[in-house]
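Run: sequence + NAP -> complex structure.
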Amino acid sequence: MGVANRWSLAWSIAQSFVREGARVILTYQGDRQKETVEELGAELGAALVAPCDVTQDEELQALARAISARFGELDALVHSIAFANREDLSRPFLETSRSGYLIAQEVSAYSLVAAARAFAPLMKNGGSVITLSYLGAVRVVPNYNVMGVAKAALEACVRYLAAELGAAKIRVNAISAGPVKTASARGIQGFSSMLDHVASRAPFQRNAEPGEIADAAVFLASDLGRGVTGNILFVDAGYQLMGM
Ligand code: NAP
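>> structure
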Protein backbone atom coordinates (compact mmCIF):
# COMPACT_ATOMS: atom_id res chain seq x y z
CA MET A 1 0.00 0.00 0.00
CA GLY A 2 1.39 3.40 -0.96
CA VAL A 3 2.72 3.23 -4.50
CA ALA A 4 1.88 6.63 -5.97
CA ASN A 5 4.68 6.86 -8.54
CA ARG A 6 8.23 5.67 -9.29
CA TRP A 7 9.66 7.72 -6.42
CA SER A 8 7.44 6.10 -3.78
CA LEU A 9 9.27 3.97 -1.23
CA ALA A 10 6.51 1.39 -1.76
CA TRP A 11 7.52 1.15 -5.44
CA SER A 12 11.13 0.29 -4.50
CA ILE A 13 9.81 -2.20 -1.96
CA ALA A 14 7.50 -3.81 -4.53
CA GLN A 15 10.43 -4.14 -6.96
CA SER A 16 12.60 -5.84 -4.32
CA PHE A 17 9.74 -8.19 -3.40
CA VAL A 18 9.25 -9.21 -7.06
CA ARG A 19 13.00 -9.66 -7.51
CA GLU A 20 12.91 -12.16 -4.63
CA GLY A 21 10.01 -14.09 -6.14
CA ALA A 22 6.98 -12.59 -4.39
CA ARG A 23 3.61 -12.13 -6.04
CA VAL A 24 2.53 -8.59 -5.23
CA ILE A 25 -0.72 -6.67 -4.99
CA LEU A 26 -0.63 -2.89 -5.38
CA THR A 27 -3.30 -0.58 -3.99
CA TYR A 28 -4.10 3.04 -4.72
CA GLN A 29 -6.14 5.64 -2.90
CA GLY A 30 -8.58 6.87 -5.53
CA ASP A 31 -9.33 7.43 -9.20
CA ARG A 32 -6.64 10.14 -9.42
CA GLN A 33 -3.91 7.49 -9.05
CA LYS A 34 -5.69 4.56 -10.74
CA GLU A 35 -4.12 4.83 -14.20
CA THR A 36 -0.57 5.43 -12.94
CA VAL A 37 -0.64 2.58 -10.45
CA GLU A 38 -2.23 0.22 -13.00
CA GLU A 39 0.62 1.03 -15.41
CA LEU A 40 3.20 0.43 -12.68
CA GLY A 41 1.45 -2.80 -11.69
CA ALA A 42 1.53 -4.04 -15.29
CA GLU A 43 5.25 -3.22 -15.52
CA LEU A 44 5.86 -5.15 -12.31
CA GLY A 45 3.65 -8.11 -13.22
CA ALA A 46 1.48 -7.46 -10.15
CA ALA A 47 -1.08 -10.16 -9.41
CA LEU A 48 -3.71 -7.53 -8.62
CA VAL A 49 -4.04 -3.73 -8.62
CA ALA A 50 -6.97 -2.55 -6.52
CA PRO A 51 -8.37 0.61 -4.90
CA CYS A 52 -8.02 1.04 -1.15
CA ASP A 53 -8.42 4.34 0.67
CA VAL A 54 -7.26 3.42 4.17
CA THR A 55 -9.68 5.88 5.77
CA GLN A 56 -12.59 3.79 4.43
CA ASP A 57 -13.24 0.56 6.34
CA GLU A 58 -15.51 -0.69 3.52
CA GLU A 59 -12.62 -0.40 1.04
CA LEU A 60 -10.30 -2.31 3.37
CA GLN A 61 -12.95 -5.02 3.77
CA ALA A 62 -13.64 -5.18 0.03
CA LEU A 63 -9.93 -5.61 -0.66
CA ALA A 64 -9.64 -8.34 1.99
CA ARG A 65 -12.58 -10.17 0.38
CA ALA A 66 -11.02 -9.81 -3.09
CA ILE A 67 -7.67 -11.18 -1.87
CA SER A 68 -9.39 -14.04 -0.06
CA ALA A 69 -11.41 -14.98 -3.16
CA ARG A 70 -8.45 -14.75 -5.56
CA PHE A 71 -5.52 -16.00 -3.51
CA GLY A 72 -6.94 -17.53 -0.33
CA GLU A 73 -4.25 -16.00 1.88
CA LEU A 74 -1.71 -13.23 2.32
CA ASP A 75 1.89 -13.47 3.58
CA ALA A 76 2.89 -9.86 4.08
CA LEU A 77 1.45 -6.36 4.24
CA VAL A 78 3.53 -3.28 3.51
CA HIS A 79 1.88 -0.11 4.84
CA SER A 80 3.74 2.80 3.23
CA ILE A 81 1.20 5.54 3.76
CA ALA A 82 1.16 8.94 5.45
CA PHE A 83 -0.59 12.26 5.10
CA ALA A 84 -0.55 15.65 6.80
CA ASN A 85 -1.81 19.01 5.64
CA ARG A 86 1.00 20.94 3.98
CA GLU A 87 0.54 23.97 6.27
CA ASP A 88 1.12 21.76 9.31
CA LEU A 89 4.56 20.86 7.91
CA SER A 90 5.76 24.46 7.83
CA ARG A 91 4.11 26.56 10.52
CA PRO A 92 5.01 26.25 14.24
CA PHE A 93 3.84 22.99 15.85
CA LEU A 94 1.94 25.07 18.41
CA GLU A 95 -0.33 26.26 15.58
CA THR A 96 -1.39 22.72 14.61
CA SER A 97 -5.16 22.69 14.16
CA ARG A 98 -7.41 20.04 15.71
CA SER A 99 -8.48 18.86 12.26
CA GLY A 100 -4.86 18.79 10.98
CA TYR A 101 -3.78 16.74 13.99
CA LEU A 102 -6.65 14.27 13.52
CA ILE A 103 -6.16 13.74 9.78
CA ALA A 104 -2.43 13.09 10.25
CA GLN A 105 -3.20 10.54 12.97
CA GLU A 106 -5.98 8.87 11.01
CA VAL A 107 -4.12 8.37 7.74
CA SER A 108 -0.60 7.90 9.09
CA ALA A 109 -1.13 5.86 12.30
CA TYR A 110 -4.65 4.54 12.80
CA SER A 111 -4.68 3.16 9.25
CA LEU A 112 -2.07 0.58 10.30
CA VAL A 113 -4.47 -0.74 12.94
CA ALA A 114 -7.38 -0.76 10.47
CA ALA A 115 -5.32 -2.51 7.78
CA ALA A 116 -3.92 -5.08 10.22
CA ARG A 117 -7.46 -5.85 11.42
CA ALA A 118 -8.66 -6.32 7.83
CA PHE A 119 -5.77 -8.44 6.60
CA ALA A 120 -4.55 -10.44 9.62
CA PRO A 121 -7.31 -13.06 9.09
CA LEU A 122 -5.78 -13.75 5.66
CA MET A 123 -2.39 -14.53 7.20
CA LYS A 124 -3.43 -18.06 7.95
CA ASN A 125 0.10 -19.46 8.31
CA GLY A 126 1.48 -16.41 10.04
CA GLY A 127 2.67 -13.30 8.30
CA SER A 128 4.52 -10.02 8.43
CA VAL A 129 3.19 -6.47 8.69
CA ILE A 130 5.66 -3.71 7.87
CA THR A 131 5.20 0.04 8.10
CA LEU A 132 7.42 3.03 7.37
CA SER A 133 8.43 5.46 10.08
CA TYR A 134 10.94 8.27 10.53
CA LEU A 135 13.31 9.59 13.18
CA GLY A 136 10.89 12.48 13.77
CA ALA A 137 8.87 10.00 15.87
CA VAL A 138 11.49 10.07 18.61
CA ARG A 139 13.42 13.34 18.05
CA VAL A 140 12.37 16.82 17.13
CA VAL A 141 13.01 17.44 13.43
CA PRO A 142 12.26 21.00 12.24
CA ASN A 143 8.96 21.25 10.30
CA TYR A 144 8.16 17.53 10.71
CA ASN A 145 5.80 18.62 13.51
CA VAL A 146 2.40 16.92 13.38
CA MET A 147 3.84 14.07 11.33
CA GLY A 148 6.41 13.37 14.05
CA VAL A 149 3.59 12.95 16.55
CA ALA A 150 1.73 10.68 14.10
CA LYS A 151 4.89 8.57 13.61
CA ALA A 152 5.28 8.29 17.41
CA ALA A 153 1.73 6.91 17.52
CA LEU A 154 2.50 4.64 14.58
CA GLU A 155 5.53 3.17 16.36
CA ALA A 156 3.41 2.56 19.48
CA CYS A 157 0.80 0.87 17.28
CA VAL A 158 3.56 -1.41 15.95
CA ARG A 159 4.34 -2.54 19.51
CA TYR A 160 0.71 -3.10 20.55
CA LEU A 161 -0.13 -4.94 17.33
CA ALA A 162 3.02 -7.07 17.61
CA ALA A 163 2.07 -8.06 21.15
CA GLU A 164 -1.44 -9.11 20.16
CA LEU A 165 -0.70 -10.75 16.82
CA GLY A 166 2.33 -12.73 17.96
CA ALA A 167 0.14 -15.67 18.97
CA ALA A 168 -1.09 -15.88 15.36
CA LYS A 169 2.58 -15.89 14.20
CA ILE A 170 2.09 -12.48 12.65
CA ARG A 171 5.07 -10.18 13.10
CA VAL A 172 4.72 -6.39 13.07
CA ASN A 173 7.69 -4.08 12.53
CA ALA A 174 8.56 -0.63 11.25
CA ILE A 175 11.44 0.55 9.13
CA SER A 176 12.59 3.99 10.21
CA ALA A 177 13.88 5.25 6.89
CA GLY A 178 16.29 8.10 6.34
CA PRO A 179 15.00 10.97 4.18
CA VAL A 180 14.41 10.15 0.51
CA LYS A 181 13.07 12.60 -2.08
CA THR A 182 9.47 11.48 -2.74
CA ALA A 183 6.19 13.33 -3.34
CA SER A 184 5.31 13.21 0.37
CA ALA A 185 8.78 14.31 1.45
CA ARG A 186 8.61 17.36 -0.82
CA GLY A 187 5.68 18.56 1.31
CA ILE A 188 8.04 19.14 4.25
CA GLN A 189 9.44 22.66 4.20
CA GLY A 190 13.23 22.65 3.93
CA PHE A 191 13.41 18.99 2.88
CA SER A 192 16.42 19.51 0.58
CA SER A 193 18.44 20.95 3.46
CA MET A 194 17.51 17.84 5.51
CA LEU A 195 19.10 15.69 2.80
CA ASP A 196 22.27 17.83 2.83
CA HIS A 197 22.41 17.77 6.63
CA VAL A 198 22.17 13.97 6.80
CA ALA A 199 24.71 13.45 4.03
CA SER A 200 27.23 15.65 5.83
CA ARG A 201 26.81 13.93 9.23
CA ALA A 202 25.73 10.31 8.71
CA PRO A 203 28.38 7.60 9.20
CA PHE A 204 27.95 6.58 5.53
CA GLN A 205 28.50 10.25 4.47
CA ARG A 206 25.44 10.03 2.25
CA ASN A 207 21.69 9.51 2.46
CA ALA A 208 19.92 6.16 2.60
CA GLU A 209 19.01 4.73 -0.80
CA PRO A 210 15.49 3.49 -1.62
CA GLY A 211 16.87 0.06 -2.55
CA GLU A 212 18.41 -0.31 0.92
CA ILE A 213 15.05 0.44 2.56
CA ALA A 214 13.32 -1.96 0.18
CA ASP A 215 15.75 -4.80 0.88
CA ALA A 216 15.25 -4.35 4.63
CA ALA A 217 11.51 -4.78 3.98
CA VAL A 218 12.25 -8.04 2.15
CA PHE A 219 14.20 -9.23 5.19
CA LEU A 220 11.33 -8.36 7.55
CA ALA A 221 8.74 -9.99 5.25
CA SER A 222 10.72 -13.18 4.67
CA ASP A 223 11.54 -16.10 6.92
CA LEU A 224 14.97 -14.51 7.48
CA GLY A 225 13.17 -12.07 9.76
CA ARG A 226 11.21 -14.78 11.56
CA GLY A 227 12.62 -13.89 14.98
CA VAL A 228 11.91 -10.16 14.74
CA THR A 229 8.72 -8.46 15.91
CA GLY A 230 7.77 -5.13 17.48
CA ASN A 231 11.00 -3.56 16.24
CA ILE A 232 11.84 -0.23 14.69
CA LEU A 233 14.66 -0.95 12.25
CA PHE A 234 16.66 2.12 11.21
CA VAL A 235 17.73 2.16 7.56
CA ASP A 236 19.17 5.64 7.45
CA ALA A 237 22.88 5.55 6.55
CA GLY A 238 23.49 5.44 10.31
CA TYR A 239 22.35 9.01 10.96
CA GLN A 240 20.24 8.22 14.04
CA LEU A 241 23.19 7.09 16.16
CA MET A 242 25.04 10.43 16.03
CA GLY A 243 24.89 12.59 19.15
CA MET A 244 27.00 15.42 17.82
P1 NAP B 1 4.67 8.82 -1.34
O1 NAP B 1 5.22 8.25 -2.57
O2 NAP B 1 3.94 10.13 -1.46
O3 NAP B 1 3.74 7.73 -0.64
C1 NAP B 1 2.74 8.05 0.28
C2 NAP B 1 1.54 7.24 -0.11
O4 NAP B 1 0.48 7.37 0.86
C3 NAP B 1 0.95 7.67 -1.46
O5 NAP B 1 0.81 6.54 -2.28
C4 NAP B 1 -0.40 8.22 -1.05
O6 NAP B 1 -1.37 8.11 -2.06
C5 NAP B 1 -0.70 7.32 0.10
N1 NAP B 1 -1.89 7.74 0.86
C6 NAP B 1 -2.11 8.92 1.48
N2 NAP B 1 -3.34 8.92 2.01
C7 NAP B 1 -3.89 7.71 1.73
C8 NAP B 1 -5.14 7.10 2.00
N3 NAP B 1 -6.12 7.74 2.69
N4 NAP B 1 -5.36 5.83 1.57
C9 NAP B 1 -4.43 5.18 0.86
N5 NAP B 1 -3.22 5.70 0.55
C10 NAP B 1 -2.97 6.96 0.99
O7 NAP B 1 5.82 9.11 -0.26
P2 NAP B 1 6.84 8.12 0.49
O8 NAP B 1 7.93 9.00 0.97
O9 NAP B 1 7.15 6.95 -0.34
O10 NAP B 1 6.01 7.70 1.79
C11 NAP B 1 5.77 6.33 2.15
C12 NAP B 1 5.93 6.16 3.63
O11 NAP B 1 7.30 6.29 3.97
C13 NAP B 1 5.17 7.19 4.47
O12 NAP B 1 4.65 6.56 5.64
C14 NAP B 1 6.28 8.14 4.87
O13 NAP B 1 5.99 8.87 6.04
C15 NAP B 1 7.40 7.15 5.08
N6 NAP B 1 8.75 7.72 5.14
C16 NAP B 1 9.20 8.48 4.11
C17 NAP B 1 10.46 9.03 4.19
C18 NAP B 1 10.99 9.92 3.10
O14 NAP B 1 11.94 10.67 3.34
N7 NAP B 1 10.45 9.84 1.90
C19 NAP B 1 11.29 8.78 5.32
C20 NAP B 1 10.80 7.98 6.35
C21 NAP B 1 9.51 7.46 6.24
P3 NAP B 1 -1.75 9.44 -2.92
O15 NAP B 1 -0.51 9.88 -3.60
O16 NAP B 1 -2.82 8.95 -3.83
O17 NAP B 1 -2.24 10.45 -1.93
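>> summary
The two ends are 36 Å apart (CA to CA). The domain at 9-241 is CATH 3.40.50.720 (Rossmann fold).
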